Amino acid sequence: MLNATWLETFTTLCEIGHFTQAAERLNMTQPGVSQHLRKLEQQVGQGLISRLGKSFTLTPAGEAVFELGLSRRVEEKSLRDAIEADDWNAGPVHIACSGSFALLLYPMLLAWMRAAPDLSVHLEAAPQAKILAGLLEGSFDLGVLGADPDHARLEATHLGREELCLVLPADAVDMPVSFSDLEARGFIAHPDGYGYADELLRLNFPDDYPGADQLSVRGSVNQIGQIPAPVAKGVGYTLLPRSGVEAFADKASLSIVQLPKRRWHELWLVVRRGSRLSARARYARDMIEEAAVQLR
C-alpha cells in the first residue's frame, strides 16, 4: 500500500507543476515536498519525475502513480459524501429479534418504510444463537436478546422485560385455572411452545404437570402470527410472550390469564461495541425501545 500522505503530496505536485507552489498549497516547505517525493519513489521502486531545470516531466511510472492519486481523491470524496450525508431515511438497516417481538415491531417499521422510499429495512426473526452470531460477524446492526450476552465485542442495553402469558379465549371464565381445565381445552402447540410450557406450567402446577411431551395437544401452528388464531375462535389455549399477543390483529378475542406465579423474559438491545450507528440504525433503535415500552 502506498503511503496516502506521500501520494497526495505527489498528486498536488503533478497538478501544479512547481515545487515551491505545491509546498505553499500543502502548507509545507519545499524540502518537505522533495522528501515525500523521494520516499514515494522508494516505495514504488522507480523514479517518478525527470527534472528539466526548475521544471519536470513525469516518467511512465509517474504518470501511473498520478492517475492513482487522482482516483484515490475521487474515492475518498465519495466516502466522505456518504458519511456526511448519513440520511436516516436512506440505506439499509438489519435487525434481528424473536418472532413474537418481530410481530410487534414490524408494523412500526412498515410505516417508516412507506414514508422513506430510499430506506431498506431487513428484519429477521431468529433464534438467540443466530442473533448473537450475526451481531458478532456484523450481519445485524441491532439485535434483541433475552439476556445480556456479556461479550467483550458487544454492548447491551436493558430494554425491560415481557411476561410469558397463558392465553385463553376472551370469554374464558375469570376464575382460577387448574391444569385439568387446560388439559380439557387442549394445547395449541408451536415450536417454542413446549419450552414455554416447561417454564410456566411446571412453575404453577408442579404436582400435576407431566412434562411438555405429555400435554394434550389440540393443534399446532408454526406461523407465529397465526398461533393465537385458534384460541381466538375458542379452540384450546396457548403460551406466548406478551409481544405475540399484543401484535395479534384480533387480540380483543383473547384473554391473558394471570397465574399465581408469573414468568418474565428479559429484553436486551445489543450492538457491536465501539461501532458508530448510522442515523437509520439509531432511528430503528428508538423504534425498538418504543415497542418494548408497550410490553411493560
From TrEMBL:
Alphabetical list of Gene3D superfamilies matching this protein: Periplasmic binding protein-like II, Winged helix-like DNA-binding domain superfamily/Winged helix DNA-binding domain
Organism: Paracoccus benzoatiresistens
InterPro entries linked: LysR_HTH_N, LysR_subst-bd, WH-like_DNA-bd_sf, WH_DNA-bd_sf
Domain (HTH lysR-type): residue spans on this chain: 2-59
CDD domains per record: PBP2_LTTR_substrate
Pfam families for the chain: HTH_1, LysR_substrate
Coiled-coil ranges per UniProt: none
Family: Belongs to the LysR transcriptional regulatory family.
Top-level taxon in the UniProt lineage: Bacteria
Keywords: DNA-binding, Transcription, Transcription regulation
PROSITE patterns in alphabetical order: HTH_LYSR
Protein name: LysR family transcriptional regulator
